[in-house]
Amino acid sequence: MIGFPCHIKTVLKKESSERESNSCQLRKVKFKYCGYDIDAVLDRLPTATILSEECGVYTVEVEVFGTGIDMWLRSQGDLIEVIT
Fold first, then answer.
1. Long-range contacts for 54-58 (Cβ within 8 Å, ≥24 apart)?
2. What is the mean pLDDT of each successive set of 10 residues along the chain, which is 84 residues long?
3. Is 65 a domain residue?
């Protein structure tokens, strides 16, 4: 069996530990939602809090661990505008 060269093992280990440390960090994300049903967001993100609502546009804040939320937010397209 052929193994990875030492420098590749070091890089892989470093990337793995960076991912693990990012996934453990609690962060707050604030965004505006202008979709059809705010309940869909609240069901998906149990820690979500509605900060305000104006003309059907909701400002929402959520506390999450890691960076997985970023992919979900991008997948919502024009329905969501990330504030922070």
1. 57/32, 57/33, 58/32, 58/33, 58/34
2. 52 54 82 95 96 96 94 95 94
3. yes
Q: Is residue 29 part of a domain?
A: yes
pLDDT at 12: 47
The DSSP element (H or E) to which 27 belongs, if any, is strand 26-33
Contact between 31 and 79 (Cβ < 8 Å): no
pTM above 0.85, yes or no: no
Which range of residues forms the domain containing residue 74? 25-82
Quickly list H helices, the chain: 6-23, 38-44, 68-75
Closest CA to 60 of 39, 15, 71: 39
Q: Which of 33, 52, 30 is nearest to 41 (CA)?
A: 33
